[in-house]
């Protein structure tokens, strides 16, 4: 297979999500994957490591520093760049020399542990400055460039080959369109940030379905450098009900020559990242043609041994169907999409006239339900724990659909609660679910209040029941 040249090209993984950071053992397993697959960069930036973000001024305690030093050494042994990132933007005073000194002490501690590469991240912070910073710098972009340039020079004085990366407050096109970060934010970054510093970018959106060559070429003109893609395609920290095990896609092979690197910020749950990272590695190494579905099927086949069970085994075909149900943020895999379309058409038509289609749906649904039940017997317990809450929801929804269709075929009362344990308040219940039902999301992504007659009647009945209760 043809191999894409990756010299000086950053390709790898960002531990940069919100949620419980990965364990030391998981990180070491990740490094083994990366070394075997040809990925060369790991960026340490877990948002909920307190000393990465909330308590960024504090040095690591001895035990914490020792653990990080072990990671640095493990990366070096595998020829992987260990990039240490700090995120001081929540409360840094850009004009305060004491805060700059604190950043230096934090980096100095990591240098002593053998770290050579660093990043400053100013993502997901308020886009405002205090009065002193405004008076001195005039803009958020200029203030961030000052601090980043100073830290880059200080680091290079001590580690001449240091790679240095920067994440701006406006890190995707939508943020720029909304003027996040202020007027002329990106042009100021391009003009004032030292040219040796790499800039992170997530694409048109925070979670970008596609990132095209033309998109990053336009960005390059503004930033005066090629960006490094911080890719959130498989991130799931914004939705606790989902995870993504589909392939790396929506990026053509030519993109590799238009950027300085491709780093994936994947699922919070480490055991669910095998296929996303395996296919990223194949994308980085492939020739001119990228076939994501083929890469997905091969990666799932490699992942399959981790699904060994204590009793009755599962099949590779069932794992592919299951994976298609948790494919990508913007799409399901083809087998899951076919199952959904079958259910949708059956609910809209007379199921009695489509008994064959009903039977086909039930076969597929039961395959999935049986697969989900079998997950409780996984020998790889961390994988089961990562899956368990989400697969339970899939089982329940499939069972509910089967019960509804069965009742409809028997001319029974499909709305009769005796047919199901899915009672109001105990299923699809809770404050979040109630809030979600107040606004309907339209196809263009906008939201409008749900003013359907059915909803109005339901709200009226609830109010009447409340008034009538003694």
Structural features, described:
The N and C termini lie far apart (75 Å). The longest helix has 29 residues. This protein folds into 3 domains: 277 residues, TIM Barrel; 112 residues, Methane Monooxygenase Hydroxylase, Chain G, domain 1 (Up-down Bundle), CATH 1.20.58.240; 38 residues, no CATH class. The strands form 2 sheets. The chain has an 8-stranded parallel β-barrel, surrounded by 4 helices. It has a two-stranded antiparallel sheet with strand order 9-10. The N terminus and C terminus are likely disordered. It is α/β, with parallel strands linked by helices and 470 residues long. The protein is built from 16 helices and 10 strands.
Give short descriptive properties of this protein.
alpha/beta, eight-stranded parallel beta barrel, Methane Monooxygenase Hydroxylase, Chain G, domain 1, disordered C terminus, 3 domains, 470 residues, two-stranded antiparallel sheet, 16 helices, TIM Barrel
Number of domains: 3
Work out the radius of gyration.
25 Å
* Integer average pLDDT: 91
Order of helices and strands: EHEHEHEHHEHHEHEEHHHHHHHEEH
Residues in helices, as a percent range? 40-55%
Q: What strand line-up does the widest sheet have? A: 1-2-3-4-5-6-7-8
In CATH, the homologous superfamily of the largest domain goes by the name Glycosidases
Q: End-to-end distance, in Å?
A: 75 Å
Work out the number of β strands: 10
Task: Profile the largest sheet.
Answer: 8 strands, parallel, barrel
**Which structural category do the helix and sheet elements fall into?**
alpha/beta
The backbone outline, from C-alpha atoms, is: globular
CATH topology of the largest domain: TIM Barrel
Q: What's the CATH class of the largest domain, please?
A: Alpha Beta
Low-confidence stretches: 1-6, 466-470
Beta-strand level of the residues, as a percent range? 5-15%
Number of helices: 16
What is the correct CATH architecture of the largest domain? Answer: Alpha-Beta Barrel
């Amino acid at each position: 297979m043809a191999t894409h040249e990756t010299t000086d090209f950053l390709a790898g993984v960002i531990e940069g999500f919100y949620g419980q950071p990965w364990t030391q053992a998981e990180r070491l397993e990740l490094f083994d994957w990366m070394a075997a697959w040809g990925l060369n960069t790991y960026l340490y930036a877990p948002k909920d490591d307190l000393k990465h973000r909330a308590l960024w001024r504090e040095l690591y305690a001895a035990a914490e520093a020792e653990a990080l030093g072990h990671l640095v050494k493990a990366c070096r042994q595998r020829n992987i760049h260990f990039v240490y990132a700090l995120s001081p933007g929540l409360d840094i005073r850009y004009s305060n020399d004491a805060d700059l000194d604190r950043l230096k002490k934090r980096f100095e501690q990591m240098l002593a542990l053998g770290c050579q590469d660093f990043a400053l991240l100013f993502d997901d912070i308020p886009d405002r400055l205090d009065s002193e910073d405004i008076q001195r710098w005039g803009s958020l972009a200029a203030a961030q460039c000052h601090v980043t340039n100073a830290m880059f020079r200080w680091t290079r004085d001590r580690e001449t080959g240091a790679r240095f990366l920067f994440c701006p407050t406006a890190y995707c096109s939508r943020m720029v369109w909304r003027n996040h970060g202020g007027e002329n934010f990106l042009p100021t970054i391009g003009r004032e940030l030292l040219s040796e510093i790499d800039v992170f970018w997530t694409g048109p959106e925070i979670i970008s379905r596609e990132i095209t060559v033309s998109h990053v070429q336009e960005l390059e003109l503004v930033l005066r450098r090629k960006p490094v893609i911080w890719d959130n395609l498989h991130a799931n920290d914004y939705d606790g009900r989902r995870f993504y095990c589909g392939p790396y896609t929506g990026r053509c092979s030519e993109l590799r020559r238009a950027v300085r690197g491709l780093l994936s910020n994947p699922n919070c749950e480490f055991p669910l990242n095998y296929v996303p990272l395996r296919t990223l590695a194949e994308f980085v190494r492939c020739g001119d043609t990228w076939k994501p579905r083929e890469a997905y099927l091969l990666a799932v086949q490699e992942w399959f041994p981790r699904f060994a069970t204590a009793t009755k085994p599962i099949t590779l075909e069932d794992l592919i169907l299951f994976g298609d149900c948790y494919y990508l943020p913007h799409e399901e895999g083809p087998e899951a999409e076919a199952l959904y379309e079958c259910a949708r058409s059956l609910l809209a038509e007379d199921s009695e006239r489509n008994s064959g289609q009903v039977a086909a749906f039930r076969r597929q649904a039961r395959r999935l339900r049986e697969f989900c039940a079998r997950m409780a017997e996984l020998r790889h317990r961390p994988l089961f724990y990562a899956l368990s809450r989400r697969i339970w929801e899939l089982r329940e929804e499939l069972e509910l659909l089967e019960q509804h269709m069965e009742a409809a075929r028997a001319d029974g009362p499909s709305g009769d609660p005796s047919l199901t344990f899915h009672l109001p308040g105990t299923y699809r219940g809770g404050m979040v679910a109630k809030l979600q039902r107040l606004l309907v999301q339209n196809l263009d992504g906008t939201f409008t209040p749900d003013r359907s007659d059915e909803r109005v009647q339901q709200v009226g009945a609830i109010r009447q029941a409340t008034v009538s209760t003694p």
